[in-house]
Amino acid sequence: MEKISPLAPKKFPTMPPVAGVRLGAAACGERYKGRHDLLFAEFGPGTRVAGVLTQSQTPGAPVKWCRQLLPGGRARGLVVNAGNANVYGGRRGDTAAIHTAKAAAKLIGAPAEEIFIASTGVIGEPLRTERIIGALPGLYENLSPTAWRTGAGAIMTTDTFPKGASRRAKIGGEYVTIAGIAKGSGMIAPNMATMLAFLFTDAHLPVRVLNTLLRVANERSFNSITVDGDTSTSDSCLLFATGAGAQHPSVTSARDKRLKAFRLALEEVMTDLAQQIVRDGEGAEKFITVRVTGAASEAAARRSALLIANSPLIKTAVAGADPNWGRLVMAVGRSGEKINPNRMAILIGGQLVARDGGIAPGYRETMAARHMRGREIELAVDLAVGKGTATVWSCDLTHRYIDINADYRS
Amino acid sequence: MEKISPLAPKKFPTMPPVAGVRLGAAACGERYKGRHDLLFAEFGPGTRVAGVLTQSQTPGAPVKWCRQLLPGGRARGLVVNAGNANVYGGRRGDTAAIHTAKAAAKLIGAPAEEIFIASTGVIGEPLRTERIIGALPGLYENLSPTAWRTGAGAIMTTDTFPKGASRRAKIGGEYVTIAGIAKGSGMIAPNMATMLAFLFTDAHLPVRVLNTLLRVANERSFNSITVDGDTSTSDSCLLFATGAGAQHPSVTSARDKRLKAFRLALEEVMTDLAQQIVRDGEGAEKFITVRVTGAASEAAARRSALLIANSPLIKTAVAGADPNWGRLVMAVGRSGEKINPNRMAILIGGQLVARDGGIAPGYRETMAARHMRGREIELAVDLAVGKGTATVWSCDLTHRYIDINADYRS
To answer: Which value does ipTM take for this structure?
Structure first.
């Protein structure tokens, strides 16, 4: 067992039930011993679902299965196993996902096409489904509306702590709940693929609206974090809306003003989970916030910020507590985004370091160095060409990352 | 002084003079003590020049100076200093480059607009030119046609060995010589910006032809290597053709068949130097060759290969001698290039590991693991969609990389 990340939250949050959602976990021993490695969740009738899936061209079988199901927009269950990602398993891998869905569907009494599947773990090893399918009936007997922590723990691979977050928000004067769990410890953990995030709400919203809300929030949360810049074959983020708490008025457009609080709450839950993933980044000792302002657009700002956040030279400088702003100049220069090199500004820990093509008057490196010795590092760049802003989160690159990833698998 | 890279060539090659080129080095002590840090080269009248410069939007003053000069296509001298990159120095930095060019021009008796400048070293510190300009006259007295090793040594920053290569080739039945020196130890060395490469030939070729030959060879050499994926603010590759050895017939097109041997020789010199840079990659213990075949185009193959070569998860797997082919599946999947996941093939050390969507029959991991324990690692992927091929070179990601780059600058 890994030592818990020094950046981990003090404890797993207290999370309320979400009407229409019950979940639980079991140990099926596909790879791990002595721990839960299987999550099962059931959703009430009428549950709608939206999702964003990895853009990898070598996606896992569960991703392909979910991609087929999403246009239907309906969900009654979710099964997630940890230890084997069921990636690159050919037809046999596809069959494994379908068999799992069918077994869960039978227990719930729903079509298999409403059972979502995710797998995380080793790539390229055949997934044997007997243990998973064998564990489902007993697990189904014991589903509970409050098993968030158990569920979040069951989907961990090299994660060092379970990740959960929740918020309440009003739609048209009536409260709804949003709860989420996630896993990930690197865009790809060692041999273990994946970032997974599952969001649950009792709001009653059309699939089209859910998809829009999820996509926008996803850009600003999970698509705004990076540990090592590698993209998993299994990344999946699914939003289930049971409608079971729906006292609120009917809403048919994602732009409806009554959704503002819900939109913000969803973004908060997703950002909270995304930041927890970075805080559990492989070998992470420091949490880095990169803010880019003055870009040509929000998307341009995000691309520049991710380039800074992904640079091994910046990540190692942070590890070494070196306020090496020359590397920020380098990273911004190579981003390909529009910049004004003679007007741009660079800040470390809120202190202006450079601007207008040179070191800022009054810049004190001792202050910047003190900031860099902390756990929470803030880097900011203003590109001086427009109004686009974005914030992304990353972690430092340490010896521990190499220890973890250079270890032979066996 | 760093320990010499375990991947370094046994010795600096024996390099012939290039008619019309004299060079030398001196210690001006801008940053380093007790070593040469200034290179000066003079070219005979009529020398033509072609160049490719960093695409960074925060280029150093020397890069901006060279960019102004290149359309003229004429060169009489080259001055390179190591220790200070003269980047992000504002107007003062631009003036420093111009003053250096003027001083060299006066000695040679040529216009300043024919003196090329490059600087490599720390970003963001003002470059004082007095020492450089003061050292030039004595240096000019002692230029020699054979000071390749001295010259290659003077432009090193964190390099652990000097880099040189040469070839002879016939144009229309007559021999010409190509010689080159380069520096670089990471796309960006710690605080030290830069990959620099200077090529010299006595061939007599028009600027247009030189530019075409240089661009094509550059794609397959310096643009096909990566240490950490970061792009320097100072990357420069210049090709000087003195015409002084020109017994060969006049050639006016880069497509002229009589240039075939020269084209190959130029590519060989540049690839040789490029590979030496990778062999001196920060912390490198293993040299990685990534070959991609079956891509939609050569450019697509190169992009896929660079993505594999840049992946921290693959670089750490190589460091750990782990034939972790799942990470190759991941990297190919995220490249965004066209692939056929059900037909693609993966090879490690020439052994077929996976194909047609699963592990290859007869794959022996022990053999792949033995290959991975060597110094020279070969990874190959066939994307199964077209005829594009490319080869790129990289090195592993080791603890030493972090030691070097997480060190505080002072």
So the answer is: 0.76
